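Hi Y.,

Following your request, here is the sequence exactly as I used it, all 114 residues.
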Amino acid sequence: MRELFLKLREFVAEREWETFHSPKNLAMALSVEASEIVELFQWLTQEESRALSKEKLFELKKEIGDVMIYLASLSDKFDIDPVEAALEKIEINKLKYPAHKVRGSAAKYTDYES
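Below is the corresponding structure, written out as tokens. Let me know if you'd prefer a different format.
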């Protein structure tokens, strides 16, 4: 992650884009790029979404790259390691979604808390 942070800082600095990369703008850009991933899957069946053409897979890879760039840039603004944050969130989710209670269910944790 450190290498990605450094490359992104250099890329932005070379273009003098720091003023545009506020947390608000980065969060908005991240949302837009994530929506572009959604758009790739729009109207596909479950089966089609699992078997993308080479062209769609190439587009997906580019959009994932965009999402990662904005996520990394936003994370860097607040000195958050996104991998560490994800690992911590998995541990939280293990408590919210114990395997023995939720196995095979897509229900939200609030639907089975009692």
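Residues 54-77 form the longest helix (24 residues).

Thanks again,
Q.
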